[in-house]
Write a structure and sequence with these properties.
This protein has one domain. Helix content is 23%, strand content 25%. It is an alpha/beta fold and 119 residues long.
Length: 119
């Protein structure tokens, strides 16, 4: 029964995405925000399996050069204020590392998202 519900929800979302008009914005260039990142480790209760993570976010700095295809990020800058600020959690799958999503994280953060990727 749960499988049918999951499949039904997936089908509805897929059909919605199919009929929704495509936004004509050009997301191949960086957004209006400067991008910063922080790396940290979250320990589990046993201390055996630490979770190494990296977060990219919009920062208070001069805006990046939009002629460059991807934003360049700086470490531990002050975050941009305002909101709402949506969170994107990247799950890389089997045998992946979170840092491999750096270009995507920087691009989304330049448009105001907070992006978290873990190993």
């Amino acid at each position: 029964m749960l499988l049918f519900r999951v499949f039904g929800i997936w089908l509805i979302l897929w059909l919605t995405a199919l009929v929704t008009s495509v936004n004509s914005s050009d997301f191949s260039k960086s957004g209006p925000f400067a991008v910063a990142w922080q790396a940290f480790t979250v320990d589990d209760v046993t201390g055996l399996y630490p979770l190494k993570s990296r977060v990219w976010y919009a920062a208070v700095s001069p805006a990046p050069n939009t002629a460059k295809p991807h934003a360049r990020s700086i470490e531990d800058a002050a975050p941009a204020t305002g909101g709402p600020i949506p969170l994107v959690v990247v799950i890389h799958g089997l045998s992946g590392v979170g840092i491999s999503y750096q270009p995507l994280g920087e691009l989304l953060a330049s448009y105001g998202f907070v992006v978290m990727a873990s190993d």
